[in-house]
Amino acid sequence: NAGVTQTPKFRILKIGQSMTLQCAQDMNHNYMYWYRQDPGMGLKLIYYSVGAGITDKGEVPNGYNVSRSTTEDFPLRLELAAPSQTSVYFCASSYSEGGGETQYFGPGTRLLVL
Amino acid sequence: GQNIDQPTEMTATEGAIVQINCTYQTSGFNGLFWYQQHAGEAPTFLSYNVLDGLEEKGRFSSFLSRSKGYSYLLLKELQMKDSASYLCAVMDSNYQLIWGAGTKLIIKP
């Protein structure tokens, strides 16, 4: 099992450019999540999905979009990059949302917007 | 609002014991998690508490007091590889994780 994989590992964007951060999991997990992690701050939930075709906003969704066409894939789209979106982005997955259900994280994508 | 507090940084000596505290105020409670995150890497699961008391797992133990909104992670027989950030996260009433900013633990020889 590869677990949760993310591409790219690192990217530099110019203000106004767009990009898609890729995330895939091979654990047959129903739940998938996108977080951002800024220095000195806790992880913030951007979007999450409870299954193929179902997505919902988290705490900080503005400037991002997601889709979930398959159980395995959960891409995150940045339409018009802004310096405030400079961050480390983590994708995670879990089998369910129940108490005690562990979230497994991908290695992260480091994004710099200049 | 929802809030998770933990110390920003702690220093300890190899072979010693360290306790990392976490206090929380959240809307609802469905358990508390501790994750370890080495620099430049992803968080990895360490422990989960939903009932009051101590959960022991090898060199690591985690304690929870729901009435006090308080947890700690206890690391024994510290090793240099334990140098990492330790993240406290609470699952709220919507089953979403609310994360603390993390405690950076520095281990000195």
Number of strands of chain B: 11
> Count of DSSP helices of chain B?
0
> Rounded to an integer, what's the Rg of chain A over CA atoms?
13 Å
- Count the strands of chain A? 11
Q: N- to C-terminal separation of chain B?
A: 40 Å
Helix content of chain B: under 10%
Which oligomeric form is depicted? heterodimer
Q: Structural class of the secondary elements of chain A?
A: mainly beta
pLDDT average of chain B, as an integer?
96
The biggest beta sheet of chain B reads: 6 strands, mixed
Q: Are there runs of chain B of 5+ residues with pLDDT below 50, and where? A: none
Please name the two chains that share the biggest interface, counting residues whose Cβ lies under 8 Å from a Cβ on the partner chain. Answer: A-B, 20 and 23 residues
Q: Taking all residues together, what is the mean pLDDT of chain A?
A: 95
Global Rg of chain B:
13 Å
Q: Tell me, what's the shape of chain A?
A: globular
Number of helices of chain A: 0
H and E order of chain A: EEEEEEEEEEE
The percent of residues in helical segments of chain A reads: under 10%
What are the secondary-structure elements of chain B, in order, as H or E?
Answer: EEEEEEEEEEE
> Based on CA inertia axes, which overall geometry of chain B fits?
globular
Q: Strand-residue fraction of chain A?
A: over 45%
Could you outline the blueprint of secondary structure elements for this entry?
The complex is a heterodimer of chains A (114) and B (109).
Chain A: E1 4-7, E2 10-13, E3 19-25, E4 31-37, E5 44-51, E6 54-57, E7 64-66, E8 76-78, E9 87-94, E10 104-105, E11 109-113
Parallel strand pairs in A: 2-11
Antiparallel strand pairs in A: 1-3, 3-8, 4-5, 4-9, 5-6, 7-8, 9-10, 9-11
Chain B: E1 3-5, E2 9-13, E3 18-25, E4 32-37, E5 44-49, E6 53-57, E7 60-65, E8 70-75, E9 84-91, E10 97-99, E11 103-108
Parallel strand pairs in B: 2-11
Antiparallel strand pairs in B: 1-3, 3-8, 4-5, 4-9, 6-7, 7-8, 9-10, 9-11
